[in-house]
Amino acid sequence: VQVVELIRPDHAIVDLGGVRKQVSLALVDGVVAGDYVIVHVGYALARLDPIEAERTLRMFESGPPPRRVPEAHA
Amino acid sequence: VKYIDEFRDGRLGTGIAARIRAAADPARDYALMEFCGGHTHAISRYGLADLLPPNVRMVHGPGCPVCVLPIGRIDQAIDLALTRGAAVCTYADTMRIPASGGLSLMKAKARGADVRMIYSASDALAAARREPGREVVFLAIGFETTTPPTAVVIREAAAGSLANFSVLCNHVLTPAAMTHILESAPKQTGAVRLDGFVGPAHVSTVIGSRPYERVAARYRKPVVIAGFEPLDVMQAVSMLVDQVNEGRAEVENEFTRAVTPDGNLKAQALVDEVFELRDSFEWRGLGTVAASALRIRERYAAFDAERRFELPYRAVRDNKACECGPILRGAKRPADCKLFGTVCTPENPVGACMVSSEGACAAHYTYGRQREAA
Fold this sequence. Notes:
Chain A has one helix at residues 50-62; strands at 2-7, 11-16, 19-24, 37-40, 43-47. By secondary structure, chain A is α+β, with helices and mostly antiparallel strands. The chains are: A alpha+beta, B alpha/beta.
């Protein structure tokens, strides 16, 4: 969900597909308005990394990037 | 909605499904356990099993917090609410878990007990502040995702010297449950062989990807951490099939947009400050598992409902006909249970797996039961 605005210490309003809800930021430092966060039971657990999200979407398109040749297993 | 819709794109899903079909070796089968109830729900809701070739099979795991809570723990909460006059606050699904004597927290409420549904741990704390004359107990359940919020409210209660708030702590640990399933699998009759795990999404945002490395190395089972959206799960399955084919047993992370190797260190530090390992804990389905759950540290004993009310724990057997236990271990499927869909439905659950939408039985009842009949 996207953080719309920061309110009193450690709390933010997030946008849940049009629904606005208050969540706690007590578990994540440095969140700013506009960030996307993963929320569970009213608490933000992690910030979402938009660059990694794009990378994952590209992987859906074309499969994982070629990996180094795996070492032989005994 | 950004970061959700793209991860549900059917065209991309078809592409991943084609890659899985091309990679899966027809000469063998692949049994992959999705540990987490959120993934169980996604697999059922989006019909992902239909996109997989028949030799790639998803096995439901025990990662549904409501499902693994044994009857004895609900009995403790009912006792607090019904006979000790406490206001018991808990997450919605917990209220419907069947307990002893035909009761649930919901039915106890109908008999006059003060049972309240809350959305967040902080709601329970707020209730205690509003009603200083009343004992307010937060019935805390869940894996590593719900534990940090519980730690936050216990610390806040301590900081504000709240005298009427306590927590009945039932927080459990994912890696311990995974290890237990792998340890006990060969010993149990009818247990499944597993070739790998789809690792949980939210849990891993907290604990990171590192704790699974021991599981992968020690038992030689690949783990791919996946997000909650259907394409995340499909991609993780594709990565697991590749690992199995190549003889690898590594921890890979599909959910890099939210999960790092270390996880959320701030949350981990809070949890460590407030909680310590229990010697053992009874799980529904898995039995008593050593070092698999948390309790409140001595320092915060005043907020520990077990100590405050001197609550004994009494183990209670599940309904004999209910197959929740084997289903939680991945040894049986919902349709294997005689009660499924007849006596036991989401409206009137007999076992815990039918209660939560993340439970294997509820997910199969809601989205999958016509599929198998057809």
